[in-house]
Amino acid sequence: MLLQELREQVVYYGRQMLESGLTMHTGGNLSARDRETGLIAIKPSSKPYDLLKPEDITVIDIEGNVVDGPYKPSSEWPMHTLIYKTHPRVCAVVHCHSIYATAAAAAGQEIPLFNHELCMYCSSPVRVMPFEIPGSDALGESAIRGFGTDNCVTLLQNHGPIAMGASLWHAFDAACAVEQAAHALFITKAYGQLQLIPEEGRKALRACDPLQREDTGKVEIIAV
Ligand SMILES: [Zn+2]
């Protein structure tokens, strides 16, 4: 089977999204790119995560043409391919409609860097981008602006979070991190003043992300 390992990973992390509460039923989508061929294994459209098998996963090329698989790709495939075109070192994208991150996005509440998990994936507070129609090219362009050159996570207003990473492990971890941070932020506001992680700590944590390097003190996504 073409891209067997990546298709198995898409199934595995799709179930993880379901079990960890990041999504429900068919909501959200995820994909992984093969470093050698550039082909992308992506969740098929409108299929429940718990019923997916590796052979159900759709394989597309960077223009969205279906190469293998019985079903149409997720309707949000243009956002995935635009991310891969823009960030050549990124090999996975996870997008979900998790409750606290979606609520923060709806309120226009950016997520400050106050927990160490999120600091691994972001150098700046997680931005909230204006609403765009799901599946549109504009949604993908909005996600790209939301990531900027410093973050692997952004929030799409009235929609949900999106995360990118060097692997599905990292993209899923980043999606968990923003949901956890949004949830904790909600509670922290009841306790009192939010304390941010000091800049030195944030930089050290950010350097743990495989997409990052320290270069004259500035942390950036490497685009090669
Ligand atoms: Zn969506």
Overall pLDDT confidence: 93
Helix fraction, binned, reads 25-40%
SSE series: HEEEEHEHHEHEEHHEE
* Order of the strands making up the biggest sheet: 4-3-2-1-5-8-7-6
- Using DSSP, what is the number of strands? 10
Low-confidence stretches: 214-224
CATH class: Alpha Beta
User: Ligands in the structure?
Assistant: zinc ion
Number of domains: 1
Mind telling me the C-alpha Rg? 17 Å
Number of helices: 7
Largest sheet: 8 strands, mixed
Query: Between the first and last Cα atoms, what is the distance in angstroms?
Result: 30 Å
Brief sketch in words of this structure:
By secondary structure, the chain is of the alpha+beta class. It is 36% helix and 17% strand.
Summary tags:
single chain, 224 residues, alpha+beta, L-fuculose-1-phosphate Aldolase, 8-stranded mixed β-sheet, two-stranded antiparallel ribbon, 7 helices, 10 strands, 36% helix, 17% strand, disordered C terminus, binds zinc ion
Care to describe what's here?
The protein has helices at 4-19, 77-86, 99-106, 116-119, 137-147, 168-191, 199-206, and strands at residues 29-33, 40-42, 58-60, 66-68, 92-95, 128-129, 153-156, 160-165, 212-215, 218-221. The protein is an alpha+beta fold and 224 residues long. It has a single domain (4-211), classed as L-fuculose-1-phosphate Aldolase, CATH 3.40.225. The strands form two sheets. The protein has an eight-stranded mixed beta sheet, with helices on both faces. Helix 2 (77-86) crosses helix 5 (137-147). The chain is globular.
